[in-house]
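Board notes (copied after class):
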Amino acid sequence: MAPIIGFHASHEQFRPDRLLRLVQAAEAAGFDAAMCSDHWAPWSEDQGESGFAWSWLGAALQATSLPFGVVNAPGQRYHPAIIAQATATLNVMFPERFWIAVGSGQLLNEHITGERWPSKPERNERLRESADVMRRLWAGETVSHDGHVTVSEARLWTRPEHAPMLVGAAVTPETAGWVAGWADALITVVQADETLDEIVKAFRSNGGADKPMFLQVHLAYAPDEAEAREAAFAQWGQNCLPNSVMTDLSHPAQIREASTHVTPDDIDAAVRISADLGQHVDWLQRELDRGFSGLYLHEVGPEQERFVETFGREVLPRLR
């Protein structure tokens, strides 16, 4: 099966109207699919946007013929029954074209409810409960549940013919091994080679041997190396913080303060930066060889139209 090379639409960085034009351009340029983030707030004030993913997804699915996915955190900001309903409705209107990845969330997005921010083990328990609730609703059950989430006699009246793919989001080997037992697939983000190898091994050896794996690839390209590096640092430097730190900060200003020690050289741990398109091809091919069946490319810099056109012309054909 040919690999899926998708475009990542970053709601924290760009207005939803521009992102809609970008996914249309991505389809025209030869990208196979798209996915998007689902944030309440951006990672930094310099990014400065955060449109509502679920309004945008309906428009994006109608405006293109691409399959789409979203990374979502059910359980606090979103009740899992509502997410089950939203996902089901999109799959009724656009059959077999929409999947959802679920993760345990970040305080940046969830603090707005005013509820206590649970520990990571509690958040994992809540996530698993939410995933089970969603699956039962998609199956047509009337669901009542009392745990980290509460559901009372919920029934999903409009359901797709086939349940959506439920993907587990993981950024550590421990979480990858855990989601392997219950998710339909894995999605993770680009990291150091040894860490990615551990994530793949943990997923494959704990129940995910025959399940798809997707990778979100943060990258920066410009004709000039210095331009690419400057854009990556300006837009994504704060994302070099450990995930355990990022998930427990409430506001973009706190993330900026926590990342004051990050230098331009540190960004290579989180973003693939190069002015050489051949280098990008080699990096992406390495991930396909590692076993990822889908790569979702996230150009972290502002020149999105240039990225879509250049990668569609020069990179995608060399990966097929």
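Comment from the instructor: Residues 4-319 form a domain with the TIM Barrel fold (CATH 3.20.20.30). The chain has one domain: 4-319.
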